[in-house]
């Protein structure tokens, strides 16, 4: 004959099953949080690395432009350097030019006169 569970025993078994389920959810939630933390940390590391790489490339490009300009100052023309196999640098140094002063607008541009009446008579 099967033993009948008391209400307390049934509740205790249900609590154990619930606790196992809750522990499984807790493990998933903790793993997800670790995943988010690692993703955020690696995103910061990647951004830092990309910034350092960009800085190194920019430094090398500036050095390339300086060396090219020095070769031109030493008497080499851009055409001669190109024939040797040294074309102009990809990132040529930008020369800042002064912007031409624009004359101050003393008056606003007048709006055209209304021509809808004229257009109607011209078409008919």
Automatic annotation (TrEMBL):
Swiss-Prot/TrEMBL keywords: Coiled coil
Keyword Coiled coil: yes
Residue runs in coiled coils: 14-52
Region annotation Disordered: where it falls in the sequence: 71-124
Sequence ranges of Basic and acidic residues compositional bias: 79-92
Protein name, per record: Uncharacterized protein
Organism: Microbacterium ginsengisoli
